[in-house]
Amino acid sequence: MRVQPRNVEGFLKNPGDGIRCVLIYGSDQTLVSERAKTLTTSLGIPPGDPFRTDEFSCDQIMGDKAMLADAAAAQSLDQGSRLVRITDATDRITPVIADFLDTLPGAAMVILEAKELVRSRSSLVKLLEGNDAGASLACYDDSDRDREAVFSQMFREAGVQVDNDALDWLASTLDANRGISRREIEKLCLFAGPGERLTLEMVLEAAAEAGGAAMDSLIFSACGGDVAQLEKWLERAAMEDLSPVAMVRGLIGHFFKLLELHAATKGGLAVDAAMKSMRPPIFFKNVEPMKRQHRLWPEKSIKDQLTALAGLESELKSTGSPDRLLCERHFYQVAILARRRAQAR
């Protein structure tokens, strides 16, 4: 069975009596871990309980293929539910899981945690989706709407009120990886304090002070044609392990803003008025660079970039691709193109 995104929360609370093996996989490993813990708790097993949980790596299972069946058939001391957790699962383990699903020894639930698998090609995903006793659910980076919901809940739990425009800015700016973005929200909760209200101005101030404006600097240096500054910010992005996918998505978002600006000015608005009407609002330090880039990048070039970036994002998600190299190369191409345009004006 394939668990659809809209059904994930309900499934994790109650997977059903017939399900014996669940594959949780995807690019967002923080979310993979969170969902595995939620499912474990729903089974009535405290996460990490050594008396009711057996944990193996994929290599351990492949080294002794009877290990899974033996662990699944074992009884817990208190006769309660048992769990077998297998980490770093790959397609190599598919024959072992197939044997398990054919025989279903014991009564333990098996949870497989894996990194990103290509659903259309993965034998493990196909096996779990096609078996009545199996299920698979994918964990990908949150969308803006998902992040808004997660952030709102975190602010509520911390007793912090947050303005809508501040929430919009955070959802569209922070890294799509749930683990990274949650750490940033936790910092903002501490920055504001319980019972306080968080405005967009406070968020921008905190982001600038904490170096959270690194993504903006990276994008503005590329689209403005400042190759020297771009090199500096790319080095910082690598040191901070900024996700190449997040960098590309940031660039996509920036080009969409430039496209929105073109649409507004074509509709009769002056550039300054169009800038003020944009939501989330442009950070005041980026207003002049944004106006300059509006002149540098015509609509056709922006649309060409969006097409190229969509292809690049898909390529970065392919297992084994040199993601940082591909990402940096495209940023340099954008900067060189912008510099040539600026020199030709």
From TrEMBL:
Alphabetized SUPFAM superfamilies for the sequence: P-loop containing nucleoside triphosphate hydrolases (SSF52540), post-AAA+ oligomerization domain-like (SSF48019)
Keyword entries, A-Z: DNA replication, DNA-directed DNA polymerase, Nucleotidyltransferase, Transferase
Domain of life the protein comes from: Bacteria
GO MF annotation list: DNA binding; DNA-directed DNA polymerase activity
Gene3D superfamilies cross-referenced by the UniProt entry: 1.10.8.60, 1.20.272.10, P-loop containing nucleotide triphosphate hydrolases (3.40.50.300)
Catalytic activity: DNA(n) + a 2'-deoxyribonucleoside 5'-triphosphate = DNA(n+1) + diphosphate
GO cellular component terms, A-Z: DNA polymerase III complex
The keyword Electron transport is assigned to this record: no
Isomerase listed as a keyword: no
Primary enzyme class: transferase
Any GO BP: DNA-templated DNA replication
EC number(s) on file: 2.7.7.7
InterPro entries, sorted: DNA_pol3_clamp-load_cplx_C, DNA_polIII_delta, P-loop_NTPase
Family in the record: Belongs to the DNA polymerase HolA subunit family.
Protein's name in the database: DNA-directed DNA polymerase
